[in-house]
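Shipment paperwork, digital attachment
Item: protein structure file
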Amino acid sequence: MSLSTTAARGAFTTVFGQWIKFALQTLSIVALARILTPDDFGVVAMVTAVSGIATLLADFGLSMASLRDHLISNQNKSNLFWINLCIGAFAAAIVFIAAHPLSIFYDVPAVEGIAQAMAIIYILQAFNAQFRAELSRSFRFLTLAKIDITAQAIAVTAAIIAGIMGAGYWALVFQQVSIVTVQVVLLILFARWRPTWPKKDPNLKSYLRFGLKASGLQFVNYFTSNVDSTLIGKFIGTQPLGIYNQAYQIFRVPLQQIAAPMTQVAVPILSKISDDTTFEKYVLRAQLILSYLLIGSFIFAISVATPLLAILLGPGWGNISLVFSVLAIGGIFQALGYVYYWICLARDLTAKQLKVGTISRILMVIFMLVGVKFGILGVAAGGSLGLALNWVLLSIFVIPHARLSVLRMIGVTMRPMFLFLIIGASVFAFLQWLPGSVTDVLRLTYCILLALTLMSLAVLTIPKFRIDFYLIISTVKSAKQSR
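Attachment content:
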């Protein structure tokens, strides 16, 4: 099987699986938003905003270090597994011990029990890391998709049942613990790999060096991405944090369902390509497809935010549609930077990305500190401004070192950006024109039909969009035929 076919097949399988997960997560959002209160979501978000750093500590970038080396030995994989597990146990212990101080920081007693219960997650995630990398390195993306879908389905079902039975915020805790527990069981069953006892290996140092750089970047990104929740929880309260957290979770859906999972496809593929011309060809195609999928998703979601969130969450969620729209603007720039992340991993530019990212993320924190004075909307605006700045700095100071044309990458992005800005503006104007008596479901349905009509007209009448459309269709066909 050719490299291009493998890439297309992996992309298709991963995206298809993620959209099934998206349907399950949507079901979870719709159901739990009507069973639980914003305070329930807020108190759990207080814990995950701080303790989630343990997830990154448990992985320590070693899954990426393993993933990018298709010639890694079984002993090295085993060594990395045991290192992950030890770090994961350490991270879990830190979270458990820090539970009480964390509850004092927020002045919310419930935080202590939640943090202690969630500590086990970090051991389980550390256990998963090398098993997941093994499946990705072997291009067994369909197996990974099945595992993730099964885990998501079981966890969503368990959370909804727990919520109906009156568990309150514990339903959300149970959901998160259930996902990683099911993943552990299924990964062990299907990975076809078992770790051996650790042994001394001189090659281990190179993996640890790469892991340190990769995890440093992830730490910076995670810290600044969760400062918003920490600030809101500390200075504004659980209910506003619950509203903000739900807006943030929905805004993250396109990134979580498309861009993030594609990393396990893109990194092993791009790491195999040494020729600059071929590398750029793959990168530009990835940027084009992600631009159509992600930029289109964010702009359309902004244009229909009011009926969309009313359908998903129901009443009682305040100005969540406005908060969501501000976050989604930043999501556009975050989506543009995902291919940058793949490039830096494949070309070992994570150290440069870390330097630039640290500067932009420090500025993001400053923006959010200023924004907290204006409530959750100000925090959202500060975060989005920081994401836009980060993309600009990476474009100027990092990507040229990968021997790629930044102008070509931006040019590929501008076509879908231009198209969806026109479609989004048209949909928003149409939405304002509709009479108030029209139900939210019908309003959203009309907007979807209008967006599809305008997109079809663009493809039929403008050659550039038609070429892009055929390129995406051919990629999907190639993926389906190779299954």
